[in-house]
Amino acid sequence: MWLRPMTVTSMTMSLEHFKICRHRPAPPPGRPFGRCQMVGALADANIARLLLFAAGLLFLGPPVLAGSWDQPPVGVDEVRRAPVKQTIPVIGRLIAPRTGVVATRIGGPVAEMLMKVGERVEKGQVIAALVPDSLHWKRQLQKADTAGKEAALKTAKAELALKKQELKRMARLRKSAAFSEARHDDKRVEVTMAESAVAEARSDLQSARADLKLAEINLNNAQIRAPYGGVVSKHHTEAGAYLSVGEAVVTLIDDKNLEIEANVPAERLAALGPGISVTFELDGKAPLSATVRAMVPEENPLTRTRTVRFTPRFDGVTDNLAANQSVTLRLPLGQARDAVTVHKDAVLNRMGRTVVFVVNGNAAEIRPVKLGEAVGGRFEVLDGLKLGDLVVVRGNERLLSGQKVTIKGAS
Q: Among 357, 334, 330, 338, which residue's Cα sits nearest to residue 346?
């Protein structure tokens, strides 16, 4: 039964009297209500009727009133089965597989720091430079020494050729009276000594060439280069400082090949393995996918967790990523199962109840539902819907129960 209609005039009078009477004190005990108290009671009753009327429109809505509206166009989606996998959240972090200090390979004073903190470098790019003067002249000295050793080798070879030629001439005189066996033996010894001199000169030349190569390597190492691409995160020295061999110059982070590391409880590892796909979230944004790369076979005895490495797929999300940034992984608890699901855009909250609008014929009927876990862009349906139901996913915000609708795209 509907409440007595409330006119605009009665509501306006109630509000006006309420403005006049709101500052007047209440009557003493035992004295009957005055006009202000009567008006207050009337205003309260009118407001209560208005609230009840609005609540009815919001939740169910009078079918008679709904039938008098136009048929708004709505978008629908079918209730269908989808695989559901129970997951647990595990906090992980982004890690850089390559990070650390870049050290100098030779000693010397720093001439210039070429890259600032925060700047990106490519593999082989010069980060800093040492003063190259002494290294340059050491190379020139070794170059000159090498040239001298090359000349000495040529001289030894020429001497060897001469001794061999003299030995051959003496050998041709073996049948003549001028031949001397003693002189012939002496010449053979001289040839052997010349061969040894050539071998020694050749060895000296190889040593000189090796020293020249080392001098060139040291000169090249005066330019300290990035061993891999990344971002300079810290300077360990500045121009003018003297560095010994192995001292740190900068810290470099490879932020282009980040991985995810998480300490997973040992009892949750049964559903994981190399190649298993999981999802993760960055700063509460849309879920992204990752794959288990490795499971470290070492358990922390205090926390009973094991380290698991994941290879993430950022799908173009590369801005503001940093090493040690927190991520939330959704790890599976078991095998996936099929469940009845509804599109998330179909779900509404009316008067504290979860409801959807189901299209029956050409009318939309409101129906309470009980939902389970989220499955991507859908929810598992525990009660209230069945397979094949058409639910309104567009234009459902202002619908009333029983209101006639037109399905978009329907002929």
A: 357
Could you tell me the residue range of the domain that residue 263 belongs to? 87-97+255-332
Would you place residue 372 in the very low, low, confident or very high pLDDT band (cuts 50, 70, 90)? confident
State pLDDT tens for residues 135-165: 999 999 999 999 999 999 999 999 999 999 9
Q: Are residues 342 and 305 in the same domain?
A: no
DSSP code for 268: G
CB 296 within 8 A of CB 306: yes
C-alpha 326/C-alpha 309 separation (Å) is 14
- Is the separation of the CB atoms in 106 and 222 below 8 Å? yes
Are residues 137 and 215 located together in one domain of the fold?
Answer: yes
Mean pLDDT of 97-122: 94
Q: Are residue 37 and residue 92 in the same domain, yes or no?
A: no
HSE-up of 408 (CA within 13 Å, CB side)?
Answer: 12
Query: How many separate domains does the chain show?
Result: 4
Q: Which of 137, 74, 180 is nearest to 406 (CA)?
A: 74
Sign (positive/negative) of CA torsion 143, 149, 150, 155?
A: positive
